[in-house]
UniProtKB/TrEMBL annotation:
It comes from Roseomonas fluvialis. Keywords: Signal. Belongs to the UPF0065 (bug) family. Residues 1-22 form the signal peptide. This is Tripartite tricarboxylate transporter substrate binding protein.
Length: 321
């Protein structure tokens, strides 16, 4: 229900074709936006909301295509190999760009050389959740269950090397326990596995599971941030839960293949700056647990990605991913 509400309205300021389309030949045919995760996750929610307004602004269809696999690396590699003509774009996050690079074998792209970065959408903490009517009610209960025996507690994520996977492993290190990781193709599958009793828990971006928490089908134990998140105000922060070393965030951005023209990058940045500044968009971002990361330039985004890759590298090595 939450996802349906988020997709109903496009940014009002761009509700009709604008001068953006008149500034050049691009786009004169449909544009694909590859999401390297299954439908239903935060990347999907964010991009489908924005794509509706992009169609009106640029006068062409902007089609979001889900290409999940290998923790987001499959779809991300597809965009890296595409022609830099503006007709194949990428909405992605921390996993493919700052985590997969430390895995073995490395992905078929280089985050520093394979992409033209366009804009940052924001960041979101990770949610640790269990079945809504299950016996585990707090992170202390969760730790106690995991301590019963090695890998007694299983957790789902959006894939091996996803930020949810690594956030779970980061917490396990701090708590001194071991968890059994079960990778899924996306957030919806991971949540259904909890509800169906096939896994104990999940660690995944909070926005993808807000509806489940609000509907009590799953219980949020903590969000991996210093403060609580407004979309799930009853869920403690990981700091409140007693694990300050497990703070983590999943960030989201828009990119294209390396070599994408500065004109196209500029026009997309102009659109995004306008659309995301609207009050309606800010409210929707807050509803799915997203927080602003400012408006960094493409060069600053590239530096940020490299810094995040260095931060996650030791966690990836420790996880065995």
């Amino acid at each position: 229900m939450l996802r349906r509400r988020l997709l109903l309205a496009a940014p009002a300021v761009l509700a009709a074709p604008s001068a953006l389309h008149a500034q050049g030949a691009w786009p004169n045919r449909p544009v694909r936006i590859i999401n390297p995760y299954a439908p239903g996750g935060t990347s999907d929610i964010v991009m489908r909301y924005l794509a509706a307004g992009m169609e009106r602004a640029f006068g062409q269809p902007f089609i979001v295509e889900n290409r999940p696999g290998a923790g987001g690396a499959v779809g991300t590699a597809q965009v890296a190999a595409a022609a830099p003509d503006g007709y194949t774009l990428l909405v992605t996050n921390t996993g493919p760009l700052a985590v997969s690079v430390s895995m073995t074998p490395p992905p078929a792209y280089n985050p520093e050389r394979s992409f033209a970065y366009i804009t940052m959408f924001g960041g979101a903490p990770i949610l640790c959740a269990v079945k809504g009517d299950g016996p585990i009610r707090t992170m202390a209960d969760y730790k106690a269950a995991a301590a019963v025996r090695r890998e007694a507690v299983s957790f789902g994520s959006s894939g091996v090397g996803s930020v949810g996977h690594l956030a779970g492993m980061l917490w396990a290190q701090e708590a001194g326990v071991e968890l059994l990781h079960v990778p899924f193709r996306g957030a919806a599958d991971a949540e259904q596995a909890i509800i169906g009793g096939n896994t104990t828990s999940l660690w995944n971006t909070v926005g993808a599971h807000t509806g489940g928490v609000q509907g009590n089908s799953i219980r949020g134990l903590a969000v991996t941030s210093e403060q609580r998140v407004s979309s799930v105000p009853n869920v403690p922060s990981i700091v409140e839960a007693g694990f300050p070393g497990s703070i983590a965030s999943n960030w989201f951005l828009l990119a294209g293949p390396a070599g994408l023209s500065a004109e196209i990058v500029g026009r997309l940045r102009t659109y995004m700056a306008t659309a995301m500044a609207e009050a309606a968009a800010r409210e929707r971002w807050a509803a799915i647990g997203m927080v602003s990361l400012g408006d960094p330039t493409p060069a600053e985004i590239s530096t940020f990605v490299a810094r995040e890759a260095a931060r996650w590298a030791p966690v990836v090595r420790a996880s065995g991913a």
